[in-house]
Queue: 2 jobs
Job 1
Amino acid sequence: MTPARKTILLTGKNGQVGWELQRALAPLGRVVALGSGELDLADGEAIRRAVRETRPAVIVNAAAYTAVDQAESEAALAHAVNGAAPRILAEEAANCGALLVHYSTDYVFDGKKTGPYAESDPCAPLGVYGASKLAGEQGIQASACKHLIFRTSWVYGSRGKNFLLTMQRLSRERETLRVVADQFGAPTWSRLIAEASAQVLSQVPRHPSPDSLWGLYHLTCAGRTSWHGFTQAILDLAPPPRPPRLEAIPTAAYPLPAKRPANSVLSNDKLQRAFGLALPDWHAALALCLDASG
Ligand SMILES: NC(=O)c1ccc[n+]([C@@H]2O[C@H](COP(=O)([O-])OP(=O)(O)OC[C@H]3O[C@@H](n4cnc5c(N)ncnc54)[C@H](OP(=O)(O)O)[C@@H]3O)[C@@H](O)[C@H]2O)c1
């Protein structure tokens, strides 16, 4: 008899990472994918109902309040979705014995470190979004549930709201692009995050001591660049008909409601040691993404 396929409950199915996860998780089980229309993560009771009705073996939480600047004036909602909801998911996961996979952000750091951040480095978020995501991590860690938290950074892909698509649009509309050159990080393609997550999940059942795996991992593309460097690569790899002039500006010349870390490069060593997985360099990944989008 064919063994029953396990159920994977996926939130945020319409997001950059969630959309890619629908495909990447499909070989691993029966994916029950929900968007905000089917499950509002600001509604704690709705979260508990969804988990109890689905009885998943794995919960993958790709939903988040990701509007970094808007969060400064919508702190309660950001904390409900990013802070409280993951804790409730973790409690429900513990109740039904499910594994919880969750995503967090480089914006938990203040950016003052000169080298790449390790998972053990102290967090000091500069804004509401980072603080709300850190609260989510802590809620999961304080629970008794089996969990994998993946901190990623500068996510882009072929759909959704992201820097790549914004720059491609602006490069068609404007003669000059003025882009911040003093914030450093690792742009990371949403598809690679989803595929690495699925690979990790496929390793868990075969691992001799899966309990040793639970915890926090950094999961980003390798290398580092600035937003200006990222824009230059976008223009080089997929030049628009009339390429705009690209100007490097300091953060101070582009004030936004939320402060960003000057350095949010994450070390991926722990992920590589635990699972033998490493994402490619950000530039190679961008080329793959642009190739895939035609
Ligand atoms: N984007 C980045 O640059 C970045 C950087 C570092 C870490 N991350 C983290 O990576 C993960 C995935 O991010 P992403 O870029 O894929 O985000 P995204 O494209 O903004 O998608 C987030 C999804 O969350 C859903 N959502 C928002 N509020 C919700 C609510 N109240 N109830 C239920 N669903 C809600 C939205 O659903 P609907 O579309 O259905 O409304 C949206 O599709 C998140 O944990 C994020 O914090 C992202």
Job 2
Amino acid sequence: MKTNGRKSTLTVGGRDLRQVMGEQAHTEPSPSSLKGASIPDLSGPTSRQEKIIKLKEAVTLTQEYTNEIISELNATNEEVTITRDYADAIIRTVRGPLLVLNQDLRIISANEAFYSAFKVAPNDTENRLLYDLGNRQWNIPKLRILLEEILPEKNTIEDFVVEHDFKDIGQKTMLLNARTLKQGPNKTSLILLAIEDITERKQLEEQKDEFISIASHELKTPITSVKAYAQILGQRFRKINDLKSVELAEKMDLQLDKLTSLIGDLLDVTKIEAGRIQFNESNFDFNELVNETVEDIQRTTANHRIDTALQSPVTIRGDHDRLSQVIVNFITNAIKYSPQADNIIIKTYVENAKVTLAVQDYGLGLTKDDQAKVFERFYRVSGSDQNTYPGLGLGLYISSEIIKRHKGHIWVDSKKNVGSTFCFSLPIATPEVTAKPKIVT
Ligand SMILES: Nc1ncnc2c1ncn2[C@@H]1O[C@H](COP(=O)(O)OP(=O)(O)O)[C@@H](O)[C@H]1O
Ligand SMILES: [Mg+2]
């Protein structure tokens, strides 16, 4: 028998309690109104004996009804216990530290992983305010903002990074995920706070970036020399009119350019990750930048014609070479991923104080899933089509970082097997901004 959805008619053993009691109440009785309804009218013409029998029956039914309510409550209690055990088991099983807090940020429970990671005992943790734990080592300004300002507004927080020097465990980088749960009739909040210690992972990432940075620097120097030798060889072969060898030397030069560009991408990524990328700002005409870049690429492209449709000239402010790098990335991708097509279309247009560049190809295209991921670091579309194209999956990541740092937007519209249009938009330079030349780091 369930409490939920109970009908308000009181029936026990198939009989209606009101009928038994001489049907006095017109309102349907509930357990709380049972007292009033259970007093039968003893002033009628019926004999005293009958009245006593009715009264006894009413008492028996009330007793039965009470027993039923009690057994129902027991069942509900059992359900609550099962649910609580279930939640407890989940909290204990989770490998990462997990805290359950009430809305005043007092700790209701914590799991084993929390106690061992932060070297604290349950007695010193439960029922304490989070900020008071272990010499107030959790009294972290960034965490306070997270729990007191951001969480009440958003109800969930994902992957929030907090760096802090903890008393017993030292400097740590923590990844926090939090969620509020509204419980009970008063909708009081519970906060689930999952804490992941990513200190080691972050150190490894930093070591990897450091390694890539050193390796790229070391590779750059010999490649520069080899490129110089290739050019000297080309000139010598030309002097003796050995055109076959000139062609080979030129091919070698081209491949070395590709290698230099790959190493350049690796270096850029390490600079972005370390926040060391520098932008040299100046004012320039956006269409001129597009035209120069297109001409450079067209010179080295035999199979694709690059068509341009550029709207009226606009001045923008930014790093000329870095923005050229983004356009090169878009166009070289468009060429690389549309081997069957013979043209690429470049458009610019001005709207709402912004200039937009669109590079359209009729190539492999991208699924919706891939469109959401292509700007991520190292992301490359997998599949038999794409596997044949070399690359590191860094060009679009670097491009998106460059555009973001110029307060612009970057996006792609694409259809699988039809083609893609990669776009970015940038704010047009305003007179005040153009007045102060500066270097942004
Ligand atoms: N124009 C395009 N058409 C189809 N797929 C593309 C296009 N541009 C990029 N992609 C996909 O996005 C991935 C990431 O691009 P990018 O960051 O430039 O790296 P890379 O070209 O070195 O692989 C590519 O591997 C490719 O799968
Ligand atoms: Mg690329």
